[in-house]
């Protein structure tokens, strides 16, 4: 039954323009990176296009675009469900609140992964078209994208909790951006480990897997699991019908 719910979510997303818009927004920062990398290669053809495109694109993506996408994914999805009575309709079927709750969480996580994957694929493709691609650099960027995804889980959990448990869009939207703004200053400071909202920006240029990276990933996973469980408990007690 969980598979059927996920399939229904996929059909709804396929019929909307949200995924296409999300991907377009995702690729926005890459245009700057591609342009700068192209100019650098005109000056020196030994410039590594993969790293150049990444370096001049990733900060805008992890600091503004990706957090915004995470906020909007759950906000828009749950807003549409409440307007159209989608959750009430689903709960008239032989499904549990647990299945509904976690299916929507899974869809949100997959959409965030799709954004990161799209960023990675277009980056590598652009570097290939510039005839400057190194396997080692591709591997390094792939590792960074995986780490960005893992540290984004905490924010995903929080935004999903806010979006599914509060009917007013001002709560997830307002709190989401209120938490986002301080990350502009904290992510590059010595206190970045204390502010999970800035983890995506902090970790985006790290090399390898040092202790701070591991701590950020662990903290993010703990937040994701804890908030998701608390959110489910609250959602289960809510009288939707």
Automatic annotation (TrEMBL):
<feature type="transmembrane region" description="Helical">
    <location>
        <begin position="141"/>
        <end position="162"/>
    </location>
</feature>
<keyword id="KW-1133">Transmembrane helix</keyword>
<feature type="transmembrane region" description="Helical">
    <location>
        <begin position="214"/>
        <end position="233"/>
    </location>
</feature>
<feature type="transmembrane region" description="Helical">
    <location>
        <begin position="105"/>
        <end position="129"/>
    </location>
</feature>
<keyword id="KW-0472">Membrane</keyword>
<dbReference type="Pfam" id="PF12730">
    <property type="entry name" value="ABC2_membrane_4"/>
</dbReference>
<keyword id="KW-0812">Transmembrane</keyword>
<feature type="transmembrane region" description="Helical">
    <location>
        <begin position="58"/>
        <end position="78"/>
    </location>
</feature>
<feature type="transmembrane region" description="Helical">
    <location>
        <begin position="20"/>
        <end position="38"/>
    </location>
</feature>
<protein>
    <recommendedName>
        <fullName>ABC transporter permease</fullName>
    </recommendedName>
</protein>
<feature type="transmembrane region" description="Helical">
    <location>
        <begin position="174"/>
        <end position="194"/>
    </location>
</feature>
């Amino acid at each position: 039954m969980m598979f059927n719910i996920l399939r229904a979510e996929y059909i709804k997303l396929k019929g909307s323009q949200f995924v296409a818009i999300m991907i377009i927004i995702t690729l926005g920062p890459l245009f700057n990176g591609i342009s700068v990398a192209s100019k650098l290669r005109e000056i020196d053809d030994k410039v590594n296009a993969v790293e150049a495109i990444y370096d001049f694109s990733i900060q805008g993506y992890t600091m503004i675009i990706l957090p915004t996408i995470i906020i909007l994914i759950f906000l828009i999805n749950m807003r549409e469900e409440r307007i159209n009575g989608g959750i009430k309709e689903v709960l008239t079927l032989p499904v549990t609140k647990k299945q509904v709750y976690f299916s929507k969480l899974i869809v949100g996580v997959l959409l965030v992964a799709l954004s990161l994957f799209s960023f990675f694929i277009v980056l590598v493709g652009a570097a290939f078209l510039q005839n400057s691609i190194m396997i080692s650099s591709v591997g390094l960027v792939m590792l960074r994208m995986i780490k960005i995804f893992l540290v984004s889980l905490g924010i995903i959990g929080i935004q999903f909790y806010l979006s599914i448990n509060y009917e007013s869009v001002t709560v997830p939207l307002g709190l989401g951006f209120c938490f986002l703004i301080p990350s502009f200053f904290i992510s590059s400071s010595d206190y970045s480990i204390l502010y999970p909202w800035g983890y995506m920006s902090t970790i985006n240029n790290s090399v390898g897997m040092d202790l701070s990276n591991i701590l950020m990933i662990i903290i993010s996973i703990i937040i994701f699991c804890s908030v998701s469980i608390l959110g489910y408990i609250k959602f289960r007690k809510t009288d939707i019908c």
